[in-house]
Specification:
single chain; 422 residues; alpha/beta; seven-stranded mixed β-sheet; four-stranded antiparallel β-sheet; 12 helices; signal-anchor
């Protein structure tokens, strides 16, 4: 179903546009109303035997009232049945279920947020929209209990400390989440360093939220391998993090200066997927390139850590369409975050969205993508070839498994250039 966004102050109003599906539903509803009214007219006006009715009116008034009550009850049942059938038809036409706001366990704030608001002057002549509709992920219907828990709070009071609940909803596909009318928990950001000193200054444990996490400090996190892109990644001083992108440890490790040279000075803004603690964005910032880092707080406060370094974290799952206009980024950097799992079509959708936001001539940097097997490497290669990218760098190499097993693992690194399509 199409939608139009209208910026109003610092919020966004979303409008629902009439579509083929909505038109079909409207026609069905109209037919149902007409049929019900005809049935009601027939029930109240039909008189097979005037003498018999006259006899009932004079000799059996209680039976007459009972007869009318039965007719009214029958009409109500017919209307209720029609509404249920229409609701089911709408679900089938739309392809998904909407949130049933009549359920008793729905939070009042959620009902208010999802309420449709008719335009005061009727249908808009320019856009064709008829009502304002709140933006919320349709998959939220499958997590209604959690969503109601998330939307239960004191209005104008402090929000519950439930960011982990919000992330759980996002990971279940309930995205975007509804807005709330409460004040998010704030943590004093004492001791933040000015930019660019902040890029490599150690971050204090006291300026991030540790609720819902197993570790309660960065020393604990540095002992864990959180992902293939984040092992000791919060250690900005003594670990290997400070050497990334400026010192190669294998032939798969490309240096930032070498990649930027392939862009002939045209790399200004970039997008990094699954960027760990933000080191790629930090190195790019040193080259006067602005990079947005897409991340979630999986087992660690990635978003707060990246922001404390003076960088831009984007709290968004990879199942969500990227909130950027077409052809805006000069560079897209992806590591193991490209391994989304599931059916091949899921990776297809992600790659097409990445291609959408990257400008013609822009660079797609695939950085140490782990190929679990030869078939996975071939599948990714076939997918990349589908886009017609020019291969500027392409390296397949082996590394020893970092877990200590001694096994060799195959990694693919590449720098590709998006063509200008007609």
């Amino acid at each position: 179903m199409g939608s139009v966004s209208l910026k109003i102050g610092d919020g966004t109003a979303r409008f629902k546009r009439a579509t083929l599906c909505s038109s079909a539903v409207n026609i069905l509803m109209l037919l149902s109303v007409v049929t019900t009214n005809l049935f009601a007219l027939y029930a109240f006006t039909y008189s097979p035997n005037d003498n018999k009715i006259d006899h009932i009116l004079h000799h059996s008034p209680h039976k007459n009232i009972s007869l009318i009550s039965e007719q009214v009850s029958l009409i109500i049942r017919e209307i209720d049945s029609s509404q249920k059938k229409l609701a089911q038809m709408e679900k089938e036409l739309l392809g998904y279920e909407t949130i049933d706001l009549s359920r008793p366990n729905i939070a009042a704030e959620l009902k208010l947020f999802l309420q449709h608001h008719q335009l005061p002057l009727g249908k808009d002549s320019r856009t064709g929209i008829t009502e304002m509709v709140a933006s919320v992920g349709h998959t939220c219907e499958k997590s209604t209990d959690l969503l109601s828990q998330y939307m239960t709070y004191k209005i104008s009071g402090p929000c519950p400390d439930d960011w982990s609940l919000a992330q759980k909803l996002i990971l279940r596909g309930c995205e975007p989440l509804p807005r709330r009318r409460c004040f998010a928990k704030s943590i004093p950001k004492v001791g933040l360093s000015p930019f660019p000193i902040s890029l490599w200054k150690p971050i204090s444990d006291k300026i991030v939220s540790w609720s819902g996490l197993g570790c309660k400090n960065f020393n604990c996190l540095n002992t864990k391998k959180l992902s293939r892109d984040c092992s000791d990644c919060f250690n900005l001083v003594n670990g290997t993090e400070s050497q990334k992108f400026v010192k190669a440890r294998s032939k798969n490790d490309f240096l930032i200066d070498d990649v930027l040279a392939l862009g002939y000075g045209g790399i200004r803004i970039g997008f990094d997927i699954g960027g760990g603690s933000g080191t790629f964005a930090a190195r790019m910032a040193e080259k006067n390139v602005t990079v947005i880092t897409n991340t979630l707080n999986i087992d660690a406060p990635f978003s707060e850590f990246i922001a404390a370094r003076g960088l831009f974290p984007l709290f968004l799952s990879l199942d969500h369409r990227f909130p950027f206009y077409d052809n805006v980024f000069d560079l897209v950097h992806v590591g193991s975050g490209l391994d989304v799992g599931g059916k091949p079509e899921k990776l297809d959708f992600l790659m097409f969205d990445l291609d959408r936001i990257m400008r013609p001539g822009g660079l797609f940097w695939l950085d140490n993508f782990y190929c679990a097997n030869d078939e996975k490497k071939k599948a990714l290669t076939r997918l990349i070839e589908k886009f017609g990218y020019k291969k500027l760098k392409w390296v397949v190499g082996e590394k020893v498994d970092g877990s200590g097993s001694g096994k060799s693992e195959v990694y693919l690194s590449a720098v590709l250039q998006k063509p200008a399509r007609v």
